[in-house]
């Protein structure tokens, strides 16, 4: 279930400030898509987003959700139909994870059993084991786990609309990449209407079905698909935002599952003894083998000269990862990127030539 959101000539003036923070903002956010507002600090992204759930009241203009006038609804009722996730998760510190996730269902008067079931379902959905996490307090979670709980809470009452304000802004780059991947996976299933605010253009390219590049006072400089903005920035300001390496950035638009994986490479098992490993490598004429455990999950690299020494795999990608992540992994590993499937099992390798071919193809397409 998703809703179209329409803002028409929406303006916000804060008391005592001359220029409006948001000036005559008009946009249609299609149902079931992720629209990213991206722009420099202070341009009005947050103000614009918060007017949709009326945490900030517009000074003038019209906002409709599925054709219904959001400004004439009771604000509390409106907010119960709109999930909201923010930076640093904004969890209630004295409530457990379960209580945090169950807040809106509770307010909606769901019976207890239904709330508890829903909380567990949501924790599962965001990759947290309910048995382990439901009774913890926010301070007992890592930043990434708090962010996941924040997303679970925003989704708990199954709202058709989700507003996300820099939700992954406060975590390290690797966790951030994982959270982004998870949001993509969730969205493939849930198809909500999501408005996502960030100042990180790469994040916008990765997540957005459409991106609104905003200038001061939330002026829309360009509103289009990531592909179109990368290929044809509307003006110099947008071009500046897109930054250098547009064709490399397009790698964030392609996923590992879009390319053919190499099956080459020597696979050995944790059961194999060093002699066997060396023999396999010599027979194949290769110097490195990938070692898998009993469930076919990658464990380490081993080299023909020291087959008894396990060398760590420093970076891996999944089927859902972007080709930019794959390129990172290739550069980190100095060879190929190891790809794993849904249960962490080995599914193949991305080779540098594959990535190069895609970059060439993207350049030609957009020339
Ligand atoms: N409560 C307020 N009272 C007065 N001015 C405000 C208020 N909130 C925001 N502003 C001003 O409105 C403008 C837009 O702020 P807003 O927070 O929407 O920008 P933003 O693009 O989300 O910024 P950031 O990326 O830094 O969070 C800024 O100039 C800010 O100083």
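Q: What amino acid sequence fits the structure above?
A:
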């Amino acid at each position: 279930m998703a809703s179209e959101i329409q803002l028409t000539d929406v303006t916000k003036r804060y008391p005592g400030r001359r220029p409006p923070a948001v000036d005559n903002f008009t946009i249609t956010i299609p149902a079931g898509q992720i629209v990213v507002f991206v722009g420099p600090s202070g341009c009005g992204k947050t103000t614009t987003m918060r007017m949709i759930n009326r945490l900030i009241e517009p000074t003038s203009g019209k906002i409709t959700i599925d054709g219904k006038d959001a400004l004439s609804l009771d604000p509390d009722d409106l907010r119960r139909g709109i999930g909201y996730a923010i930076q640093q998760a904004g969890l209630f510190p004295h409530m457990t994870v379960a209580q945090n996730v169950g807040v809106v269902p509770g307010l909606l008067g769901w019976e207890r059993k239904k709330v508890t079931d829903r909380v567990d379902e949501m924790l599962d959905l965001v990759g947290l084991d309910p048995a382990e996490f439901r009774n913890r307090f926010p301070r007992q979670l890592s930043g990434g786990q708090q962010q996941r709980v924040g997303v679970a809470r925003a989704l708990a009452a199954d709202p058709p609309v989700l507003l996300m304000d820099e939700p992954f802004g406060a975590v390290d780059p690797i966790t951030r990449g994982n959270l982004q991947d998870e949001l993509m996976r969730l969205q493939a299933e849930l198809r909500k209407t999501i408005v996502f605010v960030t100042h990180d253009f790469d994040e916008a390219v990765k997540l957005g079905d459409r991106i609104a590049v905003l200038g001061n006072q939330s002026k829309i400089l360009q509103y289009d698909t990531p592909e179109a903005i990368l290929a044809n920035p509307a003006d110099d300001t947008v071009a500046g935002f897109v930054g250098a390496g547009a064709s490399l950035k397009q790698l964030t638009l392609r996923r590992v599952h879009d390319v053919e994986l190499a099956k080459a490479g020597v696979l050995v098992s944790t059961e194999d003894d060093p002699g066997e490993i060396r023999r396999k490598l010599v027979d194949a004429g290769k110097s490195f083998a990938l070692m898998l455990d009993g469930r076919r999950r990658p464990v380490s690299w081993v080299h023909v000269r020291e087959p008894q020494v396990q060398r760590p795999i420093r970076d891996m990608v999944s089927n859902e990862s972007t080709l930019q992540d794959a390129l990172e992994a290739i550069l980190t590993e100095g060879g190929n990127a190891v790809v794993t499937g849904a249960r962490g099992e080995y599914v193949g390798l991305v080779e540098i030539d594959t990535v190069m071919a895609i970059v060439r193809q993207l350049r030609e397409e957009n020339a």
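Q: And what stands out in the fold?
A: Residues 14, 17, 21, 39, 41-47, 199 surround adenosine-5'-triphosphate (CB under 6 Å).
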